[in-house]
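[RESIDUES AND BACKBONE]
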Amino acid sequence: MPKDVTIILIGTAVGTIARFYSLRVDYRQYPGYPQGYLLHLTLGMIAAALGAVALPALLKKEYAAVTFLALATQQFREIRNMERESLINIEKTELVKRGDAYIEDIARKFEARNYLALLTGLITCGGIIVTKRLDIGIIIGVVLLISLKFILTPKQVGDIAVVRQAEFKFEGTLLDIEGNKLTNVGLREARERYMERGLALVIEPVDDDANTTLSNLGQRQAILHDVSIQLGIRRENDEPEFTPVAKRDSTTGRIAIFMIPYEKDIECMIEAAKRVPILESSRRLPLSSEAGSQASD
């Protein structure tokens, strides 16, 4: 059987790789590079090491390892608080806010990914100890990593709704998107810019679960933020009339979205909206309940 030090090092390495695999910089630029990478990879390595050490220590009747795991979970909660505070501090610098729900969702994900590193390190060591083979233990750890990554990947707006281009017009000073009155635009110059550069979408939920999920204000704000980040936005901080807006039609459940993107490309806008993640705090499943299922009939 491999030595304990070898088992722990391999478990730590696989767990750290798991954290690296779940950490990427995308269009949201969070975490930033390189400071964010260094911070989260270091914390992931520590989490993986704690998971890797736990099982060999317990087999040697070193029950203090359980205490260390308990302390680790407390530290992971502190990481969540740290991420939340960091995002709240920079929220005021965003032209289109993330919103509290999106911030909380990001913070939860960073906490969960440290548990991913810990569990991968723990299971990898367990596989080596049980099978007495390094290669089998590593394979078990990799399979766990891929499985957890798949499970933790959230659904996207495109999975629960149809996203399409919408026609818009002005009825007097009211912006109208297919019968949904979004906002009042008083200045003629602003209305001209709306008509010249603006784009509109309609997001149609596919069922009552999607309808309830998309009715959440935090989810709608997340859509506005992500789309504006990817396409850019033609507004400045002192031009509130050009802020992207989303409004739900209370009769049909459809979400109408309007913005003036820097890049006027409707296909890219549709694709960006489809790829917005469904926030954990906004997801609702009324159809899974007896009352909700009967009400939808």
User: Anything to note?
Assistant: The chain is about 60% helix and 10% strand. The beta strands are 161-165, 168-171, 174-177, 180-184, 199-205, 245-248, 255-259.
